[in-house]
Design goal:
Blueprint: H1 24-38, H2 50-60, H3 71-87, H4 93-104, H5 107-115, H6 117-133, H7 142-160, H8 164-187, H9 197-219, H10 225-232, H11 251-260, H12 267-289, H13 295-306, H14 310-313, H15 316-320, H16 324-344, H17 349-355, H18 359-373, H19 380-392, H20 394-397, H21 401-410, H22 417-436, H23 440-451, H24 466-478, H25 481-499, H26 507-525, H27 536-563, H28 570-597, H29 627-637, H30 643-662, H31 668-684, H32 709-719, H33 721-724, H34 730-742, H35 754-758, H36 762-771, H37 779-799, H38 805-811, H39 821-832, H40 839-853, E1 859-860, H41 862-877, H42 885-899, E2 902-903, H43 909-926, H44 941-956, H45 966-989, H46 993-1005, H47 1008-1014, H48 1024-1051, H49 1057-1079, H50 1088-1105, H51 1125-1142, H52 1146-1159, H53 1172-1184, H54 1191-1211, H55 1214-1227, H56 1230-1234, H57 1238-1252, H58 1259-1266, H59 1268-1284, H60 1290-1306, H61 1314-1326, H62 1334-1354, H63 1356-1380, H64 1389-1411, H65 1413-1416, H66 1420-1431, H67 1438-1454, H68 1457-1466, H69 1469-1494
Parallel strand pairs: 1-2
Length: 1498
């Protein structure tokens, strides 16, 4: 590694040997050959695997025979590594390292190294130096493996060392320097950036841990404690025998001397190594020697180690010359040292002062002076060091408190996020400390002194940004009112004595006035409010302070502002106006709050009483300031978009609130005043919002500037909309809506980063308003926003007009009516046109149809399409299902106009499809709303149907997209949903059903795709996408019309028009499906849409022929003829053959299962030769036995398969059922587990679950429950075998537990033998609950719980004799939750949520056990004992512990007093403490509450 110098020569054996001139290569080569040969004949026989490592030497050397490995051979290895360390030459180094690794990893060979300790020390030293001196890219990865092995051996030697002096000498003399350099480089990630990063990081971590263990065992041994005491505490040991330690003096000096020695690496690296090592050495010192009574010793080591850092000894000029990175490195070490002191409680203020002459205090004072005199506000660690010093003792920093406040807060330039957080933590500690000391006024004195110092005020950041302001707010809320009033008075005094006299002539004083105003505003706003229970002296003092502030500060400031005789400077005028208006706003707000909360507070502004005041009695902005003066102030403030204008808006808002509170009835004058005030607030920031700003605001008043004013103004308006909206004119409301739309984020890039989301931006505010549940309640704004959105969309559509606009404006008037006239247009139409008038509907529909059939005159290009899509994203966030009728119709026609518009050739098919999908999704959402019927006053459903499909067919002919493309299939689903909603709406209102459905069917029969398909046109000339659209339309028609016709015919026997229409729809659908089947039969599987359509057709067909047999679909008689039997039978055959393949697609499989279920209802379709039951069963078995289908997929299919099996059992015979049971028992044969045929087992288990989900009775039920004992036994054997496998196949164990729980629940009355139920306990005891991944644990645990719960609830007779077995299983669950819920170093929140869910189940089981007190009372003390015994072994997460304790409290309810005494005596001492704590909590929280509830129980 560059920067690491050559190591001093080592005097261990063999390392310093000289070679003869001219014979070096021969000697080396022969020695290496001997070494390689020796590796083959170790002292105890050859080691397998080492021959391959030594093979290269054997092939290149001439050695007559192998010989044993000896010490000189290891010296050769050390020589080669030393040569590599010095020269960097990699010749043969890999082979040498391989030999070394082989020796160290073989105990029989490693003993030669460990027997001669100097060899392993030399090896370690040279290995570390070799690693440190190699360039990052040239380092040999094997070096780390060898270092890892060598360190492991040396640490073992250290642990067995009986001579502490020798161990100390080896470490400090030879290993300390190279190991510290190596650890520093490893900590910096020098070699952990390679391709095998994860492996190297783990190895790097292990090596660093070994280095720390080696240093602890050598330099900080327990035997060296007396030497450290003699050195650090300067104690004389007298005649006490020192043994081997008598000549070992000053161990700390020795370690420090080796550390600060500059000869072993370059100065640039040396400083970093020393800094990195100081904190480590102090940590190791504390780990070894810190205990009660050794605090002074541990402190004495601190200044000695701190003296190694450059901060402690460099001259002043050199300290100032240090770079920010150097400061960061050194301060991080200081922070670690101070944290070690704080965490170990080394510093006790009283002990240090009384016994040690404040030795520690003086050191920390010198350190504090160093830090404050060399401010480093850009380094987070600097703030953290000061924070620790403040937490140790506030007196450490108090002498320099003013400099601390200046450098760390008021004059600090902090911009970076981490640094800002560190600054906030320091300020928080500072305030909290003085709050506890009740010396906050003293702190405020210092703050005011710093603010009022002569300084370049314009360069200062705002005193109260978000972080410091939050800290100060929390502090003030904890203070008693008297101290807050003291601080308040201090600020007033400072303002009056220092700032006001010089304000007229000084810009710097104007800036200071704003800082003091921000501070005073924060104090006033965060004082605890007064109420009627507040002591009267406090109320009077507060009132006097308020009056003094108004008369002596606020009014003089406003008069200075009105006189405008200050310096001719905009900055002065701006800052004075900001300061005056901020204090005016603060006074008015606090005055209103005190008046409302405290009846004994008498405001100068007058009481908040109801009534009808005269014009002269209406509230003013501020008492004593005339209206004409406010007009002048408004003109002055209008020059600046800053804090003053924002505060003036707040004053007007406060005036509105006073007017609303004081007047029980709004007179014309009051109403006029409210409207004027609201108009001023909105108009004040109107100009600033015209230029959209990307600035973010932290929400603090003091940080409002010209840049953030638009955000603050918009935040003020939006957060007070509920007050303002009622008094704004229609034009102002439209303006608000326009700004709201304009400031919404229209793209991902505008939504901002995570850091910006913490602050307030225009986009965040508007987005919050849009998503607020209150937004639709503000009808005027909501309506105006809808109109703005409509206007924006129509303007884009009109920009794409390619024909005569005047003619189009007559055909599509809703696109050309401007702004608010849109809604008025539809309101007029609804007022004039009744629900039964046809002309307007026909007119609009005919216009749209004529435009769609010819060539729609609006064409959208790429940029226009993108703009509309962004606007449609906004539309999708609105509650379209809750619109009023005019808006509903407006948006319906707007979205429909978009959907039928042409798309230019510059747009891709995918973009076009996305646009259409968005339009029709919104149309479907709209038609689910409360005003959906209003569309029928404008157009007939049949006309909408025709317009949509005509447009879509024309567009589909231009789509360059495959018919199986997922996006196209999703679009078909969206279209189907929209068409279905239209027809359902038609049925709901029953408006001209025959007419509308007749027109729909007539249109579909002459629809171009239908005529192409039925005319025998060649396949290549047909439009496949159009055919799919036709099929979706016909399918939805049958799906909606079928059930309705069936219900209609039961109530209206004489009507035959609708059944005839349904029959036509069925015939048309069948024709299209047959054509699709023919065209798609060329080696392709049936698509899910096709199967769904066939299923819908079959359901409608069966319903049509069985409508006289009740409301539900029932099996048909053989005499009934279906419309398309050949189609159904063909699809049936194909589905049976393809069912396993269809299982790969969820939608296809579900559609196929639904078809088979319906097929069973039509006996006339069943084949004469083969049994439908057997065919379907075998096909389903193939699916269940297919190893390519996962367990999770099968579980998802179970509800659909359950419906199929229910129908199968209806049509199947007893013999068919016997066949199913045979297959189940064959699948549960234990041989399948031995053959590892897990799929056969899972298939049988799934079949049992499917049968249990069916309602069957009679002989079939009898057959099943007679086989139940055999099934339970088979499940036990399967589970036992599965749990012996490694890893356990949980995919089998989980379903077995599910089936067992279901059998126990449903067999409550039929499983009569208690022995068969008791067998379930053996299954539960074998299920593993440890060493599972979180998701596995969360899957298995509830299943075990379900089995236990099923036994407890459904088999009480079994529980009478099986309580011990039950408790064994339950305790397994309890202990498992405790083990998984223990506090760990790592683990995600999701993992803890899994354990919490399981803990809730355990708590619930405890409650069920407690509910059966008669059975479990005897066992309750043993349950408690087992709980506390296990609880003593682990530290649980509080949430887990709380859930478990709630359950065990219920068991303690069952314990009587002798049981409690027994537990107190019988438990082990450590467990007894846990029980004592548990029982105390039980009595305090649970029992007291329970007894309290009994008092109210009758």
């Amino acid at each position: 590694m560059p920067g690491v110098r050559a190591a001093p020569p080592l005097r261990a054996a063999g390392v310093g040997r000289k070679e003869r001139p001219g014979g070096r290569s021969h000697v080396v080569g022969r020695a290496e050959a001997d070494l390689a040969a020796a590796l083959l004949v170790p002292a105890r026989g050859p080691h397998p695997g080492l021959a391959s490592r030594a093979a290269p030497y054997l092939r290149t050397a001439h050695c007559p025979r192998p010989r044993p490995l000896r010490g000189p051979d290891l010296q050769i290895i050390n020589e080669r590594i030393a040569e590599f360390s010095l020269s960097g030459s990699q010749r043969n180094i890999r082979a040498v390292l391989s030999c070394c690794q082989g020796i160290l990893s073989t105990p029989a060979l490693a003993v030669i190294y460990t027997a001669k300790q100097e060899l392993i020390v030399t090896l370690l030293s040279q290995l570390c130096w070799s690693t440190c001196r190699q360039p990052e890219a040239a380092v040999v990865p094997q070096l780390f493996e060898v270092i890892h092995l060598a360190l492991g051996h040396y640490i073992l030697i250290q642990q067995q060392q009986v001579n502490p002096r020798r161990a100390f000498g080896e470490v400090t003399g030879h290993l300390l320097q190279p190991c510290l350099v190596l650890r520093h480089l490893l900590s910096g990630g020098t070699w952990t950036q390679g391709g095998q990063g994860q492996l190297r990081q783990a190895l790097s971590r292990d090596v660093r841990s070994q280095i720390e263990a080696m240093l602890r065992g050598g330099a900080f041994q327990p035997e060296l404690l007396s030497s450290y005491k003699e050195e650090l505490l300067e104690q004389q040991q007298g005649d006490q025998k020192m043994g081997t330690m008598k000549n070992l003096l000053a161990p700390m000096d020795t370690v420090i001397a080796r550390l600060v020695d500059t000869s072993y690496c370059e100065p640039s690296l040396h400083a970093a190594v020393v800094a990195n090592s100081v904190a480590l050495l102090y940590k190791l010192f504390l780990d070894s020697y810190f205990k009660e009574g050794n605090q002074l010793l541990c402190f004495r080591a601190l200044p000695r180690l701190f003296g190694c850092l450059r901060l402690s000894h460099l001259p002043e000029e050199q300290i100032k010359a240090l770079s920010t990175s150097d400061w960061t490195t050194e301060l991080l070490v200081v922070e670690q040292l101070l944290n070690s002191v704080a965490n170990s409680n080394i510093y006790n203020i009283a002990t240090d002062r009384i016994r040690h002459g404040e030795a520690q205090f003086h050191f920390y004072r010198r350190l504090a002076e160093l830090l404050i005199n060399h401010s480093q506000a850009s380094v987070p660690a600097w703030f953290r060091c000061l924070k620790v010093l403040m937490s140790l003792n506030h007196l450490i920093l108090e002498p320099d408190l003013d400099d601390l406040l200046a450098s760390a807060w008021i004059d600090a330039e902090v911009t970076e996020f981490r640094t800002r957080k560190a600054q906030e933590a320091l300020i928080n500690t500072l305030f909290q400390t003085y709050v506890k000391l009740r010396q906050v006024p003293r702190l405020f004195e210092e703050i005011l002194e710093v603010i009022c110092r002569p300084a370049a005020e314009a360069l200062r950041q705002p005193v109260l940004a978000a972080g410091p302001s939050t800290v100060l707010c929390e502090c003030l809320l904890e203070l008693p009112p008297s101290q807050v009033l003291d601080a308040w008075s201090l600020v007033l005094d400072k303002f009056q004595s220092l700032v006001l006299p010089s304000l007229r002539a000084d810009v710097d004083m104007a800036l200071k006035s704003l800082s003091l105003s921000s501070l005073l505003h924060c104090v006033m706003f965060n004082m605890r409010s007064l109420d009627n229970s507040t002591p009267l002296p406090v109320i009077r003092r507060t009132q006097c302070t308020m009056e003094r502030m108004l008369q002596e500060l606020v009014k003089p400031l406003l008069h200075i502002l009105l006189d405008c005789q200050g310096p001719d400077c905009e900055l002065w005028l701006q800052k004075v106006s900001d300061s005056a208006l901020l204090l005016s706003y603060a006074w008015a707000q606090v005055d209103a709050m005190l008046s409302l909360n405290c009846s004994q507070y008498h405001s100068v502004s007058g009481a908040f009483t109801g009534g009808v005041p005269e014009v002269s009695d209406l509230p003013s902005l501020l008492p004593g300031i005339e209206t004409c003066h406010w007009k002048k102030i408004e003109k002055l403030v209008a020059q600046f978009d800053t804090l003053g204008r924002y505060c003036l808006e707040h004053l007007y808002l406060q005036k509105m609130k006073r007017t609303l509170v004081q007047t029980s009835f709004l007179s014309e004058a009051a109403l006029h005043s409210l409207k004027c005030d609201a108009a001023y607030i909105l108009g004040s920031g109107r100009e600033s919002l015209t230029q959209r700003t990307a600035a973010s605001w932290d929400g603090e008043v003091g940080t409002v500037s010209a840049l953030t004013y638009p955000v603050a103004h918009w935040h003020l308006v939006m957060s007070n909309l509920s007050i303002l909206i009622s008094y704004l004119s229609p034009d102002d409301v439209r303006y608000l809506a326009d700004v709201l739309l304009r400031t919404l984020p229209m793209s991902r890039a505008q939504e901002g980063s995570a850091d910006e989301e913490l602050n307030v931006t225009l986009e965040n505010i508007s987005k919050a308003v849009l998503h607020s549940p209150l937004f639709p309640e503000m009808q005027s704004l909501h309506s105006a926003f809808l109109m703005c959105l409509t206007a924006r969309c129509t303007s884009i559509l009109c920009s794409g007009v390619q024909s005569d606009s005047s003619l189009l404006s007559q055909q599509l008037p809703w696109l050309f009516v401007k702004d608010h006239m849109v809604v008025a247009h539809w309101e007029n139409i609804f007022a004039k046109v009744g629900p039964d008038v046809v002309e307007p509907r026909g007119e609009i529909a005919q216009n749209l149809l004529s435009l769609v059939r010819s060539d729609f005159p609006i064409q959208l290009e790429g940029e226009q399409l993108d703009s509309i899509l962004r606007l449609l994203e906004v539309v999708s966030t609105l509650q379209l299902d809750n619109l009023l009728s005019p808006h509903h119709v407006c948006y319906f026609l707007l979205l429909l106009s978009m959907a039928i518009s042409k798309v230019g050739g510059s747009c891709s098919s995918s973009l076009n499809l996305k646009f259409l999908m968005t339009c029709y999704q919104l149309l479907a959402y709209l038609q689910r709303g409360k005003s959906a019927r209003s569309v029928l006053k404008v157009m007939y459903i049949s006309d909408i149907f025709e317009i949509v499909l005509t447009s879509l067919f024309k567009m589909s002919s231009r789509f360059l997209i495959d018919m199986d493309d997922p996006s196209w299939l999703e679009f078909l689903q969206v279209i189907g949903t929209f068409l279905e909603q239209l027809m359902q709406l038609l049925i709901q209102i029953k408006l001209s059903l025959v007419l509308n459905f007749g027109k729909i069917i007539a249109f579909l029969s002459r629809f171009k795709p239908y005529t192409e398909a039925t005319s025998g046109k060649q396949l290549e000339n047909q439009t496949p996408l159009g055919r799919q659209l036709l099929l979706v339309s016909l399918t939805k028609l049958c799906q909606v019309l079928g059930p309705f016709v069936k219900e209609w015919m039961q109530q209206h026997e004489a009507t035959e028009a609708l059944p005839e229409l349904l029959q036509q729809a069925i015939l048309h659908t069948g024709v299209v499906l047959q054509l699709c089947l023919v065209h798609g039969a060329q080696g392709r599987r049936l698509p899910s849409a096709f199967i769904s359509s066939v299923s819908t057709l079959l359901e409608a067909d069966v319903g049509q022929h069985s409508r006289h047999h009740g409301t539900e679909i029932s099996p048909m008689t053989d005499k009934m003829q279906l419309s398309h039997p050949a189609l159904y039978q063909s699809v049936y055959s194909q589905i049976l053959s393809e069912l396993p393949a269809l299982a790969g697609d969820t939608q296809s499989f579900q559609a196929a299962v639904r078809f088979l279920t319906l097929f069973l209802l039509a006996p006339e379709l069943h084949p004469k030769k083969d049994s439908v039951f057997i065919s379907i069963f075998h096909s389903v078995r193939k699916v269940l036995a297919d190893p390519a289908i996962s367990v999770q997929v099968i579980q998802d299919f179970e509800p659909h398969l359950g419906a199929l099996f229910t129908q199968m059992l209806e049509v199947g015979t007893t013999e068919d059922f016997r066949m199913v049971m045979r297959y189940i028992l064959q699948g549960l044969d234990i041989c399948n587990m031995w053959r590892a045929d897990l799929q056969a087992i899972l298939s049988a288990v799934t079949l049992i679950k499917l049968l249990l989900s069916c309602l069957f009775s009679g002989e079939k039920a009898s057959l099943f429950w007679r086989a139940c004992p055999q099934i339970v036994t088979a499940l036990i054997l399967q589970n036992r075998e599965a749990c012996q496998e490694q890893p356990v196949p949980l995919a089998v164990v989980g379903p077995i537990l599910d089936v067992l729980a279901a059998l126990l629940r449903q067999g409550e009355e039929t499983v009569s033998n208690p022995h068969h139920v008791s067998l379930a306990f053996s299954i539960l005891l074998t299920v593993p609950l440890d060493h599972l991944k979180p998701f596995e644990y969360g899957s298995i645990f509830p299943r075990v719980h379900n089995v236990l719960f099923s036994i407890l609830q459904c088999h009480p007779k079994v529980m009478l004799k099986a309580i011990p077995s039950f408790l064994n299983c339950f305790n397994k669950l309890v202990f498992s939750v405790m083990h998984e819920g223990r506090q760990k170093d790592k683990g995600s929140t999701d993992d803890l949520m899994v354990v919490l869910d399981c803990a809730r189940l355990v708590g619930r089981m405890y409650s069920h056990i407690a509910a059966r007190a008669e059975e479990f009372t005897v066992f309750s003390p043993f349950m408690v004992a087992q709980y506390v015994t296990e609880a003593q072994k682990v530290t649980l997460y509080p949430a887990v512990k709380g859930l478990l304790q709630e359950g065990i409290y219920l068991i303690l309810d069952l314990c009587i007093e002798p049981d409690i005494q027994f537990l107190r005596v019988a438990l082990q001492p450590g467990v007894r403490d846990i029980f004592k704590e548990l029982y105390n909590d039980y009595v305090k929280y649970h029992k007291a509450k329970h007894e309290g509830e009994k008092r109210y129980t009758v």
